[in-house]
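Reopening this one. Same input as before:
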Amino acid sequence: MRKRIKQFNYSALSLIEHIGLLVIAIATVFAMSDEIIGMFSNKAVTLTDLLMLFLYLEVVAMIQRYYTSGKLPVRFPLYIGIVALARYLILDMKAMDEWRMIAVTSSILLLALAILLIRYGHVRFPYMNDESITAENKTENTH
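Same output, byte for byte:
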Protein backbone atom coordinates (compact mmCIF):
# COMPACT_ATOMS: atom_id res chain seq x y z
CA MET A 1 0.00 0.00 0.00
CA ARG A 2 2.75 2.44 0.98
CA LYS A 3 4.69 1.64 -2.19
CA ARG A 4 1.60 2.29 -4.33
CA ILE A 5 1.07 5.69 -2.73
CA LYS A 6 4.73 6.54 -3.28
CA GLN A 7 4.50 5.47 -6.93
CA PHE A 8 1.30 7.50 -7.43
CA ASN A 9 2.90 10.60 -5.90
CA TYR A 10 5.98 10.19 -8.08
CA SER A 11 3.83 9.79 -11.21
CA ALA A 12 1.66 12.79 -10.31
CA LEU A 13 4.67 15.03 -9.66
CA SER A 14 6.34 13.83 -12.85
CA LEU A 15 3.20 14.68 -14.83
CA ILE A 16 3.03 18.14 -13.25
CA GLU A 17 6.70 18.67 -14.08
CA HIS A 18 6.20 17.71 -17.74
CA ILE A 19 3.10 19.88 -18.06
CA GLY A 20 5.00 22.80 -16.53
CA LEU A 21 7.90 22.33 -18.96
CA LEU A 22 5.49 22.13 -21.88
CA VAL A 23 3.77 25.36 -20.77
CA ILE A 24 7.16 27.10 -20.47
CA ALA A 25 8.21 25.85 -23.93
CA ILE A 26 4.95 27.00 -25.55
CA ALA A 27 5.08 30.39 -23.81
CA THR A 28 8.69 30.82 -24.91
CA VAL A 29 7.80 30.05 -28.53
CA PHE A 30 4.95 32.59 -28.40
CA ALA A 31 7.23 35.23 -26.87
CA MET A 32 9.90 34.51 -29.47
CA SER A 33 7.33 34.80 -32.27
CA ASP A 34 6.09 38.10 -30.85
CA GLU A 35 9.68 39.41 -30.79
CA ILE A 36 10.25 38.37 -34.41
CA ILE A 37 6.94 39.93 -35.53
CA GLY A 38 7.98 43.14 -33.74
CA MET A 39 11.30 43.18 -35.59
CA PHE A 40 9.51 42.77 -38.94
CA SER A 41 6.97 45.48 -38.15
CA ASN A 42 9.74 47.88 -37.08
CA LYS A 43 11.82 46.87 -40.12
CA ALA A 44 14.85 46.93 -37.86
CA VAL A 45 16.84 44.52 -35.75
CA THR A 46 18.56 45.94 -32.69
CA LEU A 47 21.08 44.41 -30.37
CA THR A 48 18.45 44.23 -27.63
CA ASP A 49 16.19 42.25 -29.99
CA LEU A 50 18.97 39.78 -30.64
CA LEU A 51 19.75 39.44 -26.95
CA MET A 52 16.09 38.81 -26.22
CA LEU A 53 16.00 36.09 -28.89
CA PHE A 54 19.13 34.62 -27.37
CA LEU A 55 17.40 34.52 -23.98
CA TYR A 56 14.47 32.66 -25.50
CA LEU A 57 16.81 30.19 -27.19
CA GLU A 58 18.58 29.56 -23.89
CA VAL A 59 15.26 28.73 -22.25
CA VAL A 60 14.39 26.33 -25.07
CA ALA A 61 17.87 24.76 -24.86
CA MET A 62 17.46 24.36 -21.11
CA ILE A 63 14.16 22.53 -21.59
CA GLN A 64 15.63 20.38 -24.35
CA ARG A 65 18.64 19.52 -22.20
CA TYR A 66 16.36 18.46 -19.38
CA TYR A 67 14.38 16.16 -21.67
CA THR A 68 17.47 14.55 -23.23
CA SER A 69 19.50 14.01 -20.07
CA GLY A 70 16.98 14.23 -17.24
CA LYS A 71 19.25 16.79 -15.60
CA LEU A 72 19.25 20.56 -15.52
CA PRO A 73 22.75 22.01 -15.23
CA VAL A 74 22.81 25.01 -12.93
CA ARG A 75 24.97 26.82 -15.49
CA PHE A 76 22.04 27.34 -17.90
CA PRO A 77 20.12 29.72 -15.62
CA LEU A 78 23.40 31.52 -14.92
CA TYR A 79 23.94 32.02 -18.68
CA ILE A 80 20.42 33.37 -18.94
CA GLY A 81 21.12 35.71 -16.03
CA ILE A 82 24.25 37.07 -17.71
CA VAL A 83 22.42 37.75 -20.98
CA ALA A 84 19.48 39.33 -19.13
CA LEU A 85 21.80 41.62 -17.19
CA ALA A 86 23.68 42.54 -20.37
CA ARG A 87 20.38 43.36 -22.07
CA TYR A 88 19.32 45.47 -19.07
CA LEU A 89 22.65 47.28 -19.17
CA ILE A 90 22.33 48.01 -22.88
CA LEU A 91 18.71 49.17 -22.67
CA ASP A 92 19.04 51.44 -19.65
CA MET A 93 22.65 52.57 -19.88
CA LYS A 94 21.77 56.23 -20.48
CA ALA A 95 19.43 56.35 -17.48
CA MET A 96 21.84 54.58 -15.10
CA ASP A 97 24.15 56.30 -12.72
CA GLU A 98 27.73 55.09 -12.31
CA TRP A 99 27.03 53.00 -9.22
CA ARG A 100 24.20 51.09 -10.86
CA MET A 101 26.39 50.39 -13.89
CA ILE A 102 29.14 49.13 -11.61
CA ALA A 103 26.64 46.97 -9.73
CA VAL A 104 25.25 45.41 -12.92
CA THR A 105 28.66 44.77 -14.45
CA SER A 106 29.90 43.35 -11.14
CA SER A 107 26.89 41.04 -11.11
CA ILE A 108 27.76 39.84 -14.60
CA LEU A 109 31.33 39.23 -13.50
CA LEU A 110 30.19 37.30 -10.42
CA LEU A 111 27.90 35.11 -12.50
CA ALA A 112 30.72 34.43 -14.96
CA LEU A 113 33.04 33.50 -12.10
CA ALA A 114 30.35 31.23 -10.66
CA ILE A 115 30.09 29.45 -14.01
CA LEU A 116 33.86 29.00 -14.14
CA LEU A 117 33.91 27.67 -10.59
CA ILE A 118 31.06 25.24 -11.24
CA ARG A 119 32.68 24.06 -14.48
CA TYR A 120 36.04 23.61 -12.75
CA GLY A 121 34.40 21.62 -9.96
CA HIS A 122 32.59 19.45 -12.48
CA VAL A 123 35.77 18.68 -14.41
CA ARG A 124 38.00 18.29 -11.37
CA PHE A 125 35.51 16.38 -9.18
CA PRO A 126 33.10 14.61 -11.58
CA TYR A 127 30.14 12.63 -10.38
CA MET A 128 30.74 8.90 -10.35
CA ASN A 129 27.79 8.20 -12.65
CA ASP A 130 28.62 11.08 -14.98
CA GLU A 131 29.36 10.19 -18.60
CA SER A 132 32.06 12.84 -18.77
CA ILE A 133 34.41 10.91 -16.49
CA THR A 134 37.60 10.31 -18.38
CA ALA A 135 39.00 6.84 -18.89
CA GLU A 136 41.86 7.79 -16.59
CA ASN A 137 39.50 8.65 -13.75
CA LYS A 138 37.60 5.41 -14.31
CA THR A 139 40.73 3.34 -13.92
CA GLU A 140 41.76 5.27 -10.82
CA ASN A 141 38.37 4.60 -9.23
CA THR A 142 38.48 0.87 -9.91
CA HIS A 143 41.81 0.33 -8.14
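So the earlier flakiness isn't reproducible anymore. For the record, DSSP finds five helices and no strands in the chain.
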